[in-house]
Amino acid sequence: MGAVENERHDPRVPLWTPVCQAIAALLSPYAEVVLHDPGTDRVLAIWNPMTSRGQGDPSLLGELDDLDPSGKDVYGPYEKLLADGRRLSSVSAILRDAQGEPSAVLCVNLDRTPLEQAAAVLSAFAAPTVQRPQPLFEQDWFERIQQVIGSHVRVTGRPVERLSREDRLTILRRLEQDRVFAVRRAAPVVAGALKISRSTLYGLLAELRAPRAKE
Amino acid sequence: MGAVENERHDPRVPLWTPVCQAIAALLSPYAEVVLHDPGTDRVLAIWNPMTSRGQGDPSLLGELDDLDPSGKDVYGPYEKLLADGRRLSSVSAILRDAQGEPSAVLCVNLDRTPLEQAAAVLSAFAAPTVQRPQPLFEQDWFERIQQVIGSHVRVTGRPVERLSREDRLTILRRLEQDRVFAVRRAAPVVAGALKISRSTLYGLLAELRAPRAKE
DNA sequence: CGACCATCTGGACTATTTGTCCAAAATAGA
DNA sequence: TCTATTTTGGACAAATAGTCCAGATGGTCG
């Protein structure tokens, strides 16, 4: 930890330390508590770190992505995935000083993996051995694409070649909901099926995924 | 502990009592252990009874339904439903004397309800509130992983930490069949769930996928 | 105990896939 | 035809997937 000195005396750290420590202690060892400086976008302090981040490091993970100042100060819990496969539940909160000005951003990352494993063990314990008949899994993501597009074409009566922009957005919204793009190589296949270029595909997707950027 | 005059001296009861008592103690208070007489179809003894049956009562629940003497002596676990809605997992075993003759039938009935409730609590803990838009398609790949691994662990009795190389290959073969690795980011999750490194994971996978390289 | 074998690990590295960007071409409309 | 919008191909940048290997680990056997 290099740049410790110049932030050691940041008044915000001692201010929020008790809360953070309490949370970290309560949820240890499965939760990491991070205090960010929203101005410099760096870590002010961290308790029980799960990644290799330390104080002064830039805020990774996009924890501060879209903390729009409209309305709520608490975000999540939403899901995050670590490189090593752990699944986190994260909540963030904007901490304000006495004047109501944003002072720091608090993030709590809880590793859900052990809980989920425990749940799996418990629910499987002494359960009948007969396996569930396997939900077909994602064999059919390909068919699914055909299906969604085909059905839309049939409903609107427009052939794939001349669907409107809106049509395509609708279809993509649907495929996105169905998590089709969580399957490797699905994107180019969809582009092909829609007879549009990969660029366009990603453009439309970005539009969908953007919270409310447009308008 | 059940004991009635006219059967007090049945030599089978003292013979099997230690095992039954041990099982009952281990799983108490959620399991009932019953010792049946396959000849008279009556209860020889019962520990930790969950229903109102007692010693000498006729064997209810059809626990002895189809214990065909061909091959295995252990049956289940299969599911049973109690009148009050509790879900039981049951195993039965034919106990044989020194001559190999059927001596008694052991049934263990485990009440799964509290476990299932606990599992529900655990899996809900800190789960993202906004997620799960559509269970339509399979986002279940994660659960699937838990399921496959969990079931293997249960069957072999080995905890995840000390599965053998073969165990892991078996599990991976299964996951591969289920196309789990066609899902983005599945690999590190599997590695994490198996408690092995990403390297090892890919090594084992390569071994599986190699046509006939090994030998 | 110590050598030995098999396997696993962390990390560096390469390959493939995903996602972004932009200037130019295509298309739709008035 | 002229203009505004959208699409396209292709160049990049970023993220994931997969490979490789030297060293760590763990179990076995004399």
UniProtKB/TrEMBL annotation, chains A, B:
Residues 17-119 form the YheO-like domain. Residues 145-205 form the Transcriptional regulator DauR-like HTH domain. It comes from the Bacteria. Pfam families: HTH_22, PAS_6. InterPro entries: DauR-like, DauR-like_HTH, YheO. This is Transcriptional regulator. The lineage of its organism: Bacteria, Bacillati, Actinomycetota, Actinomycetes, Streptosporangiales.
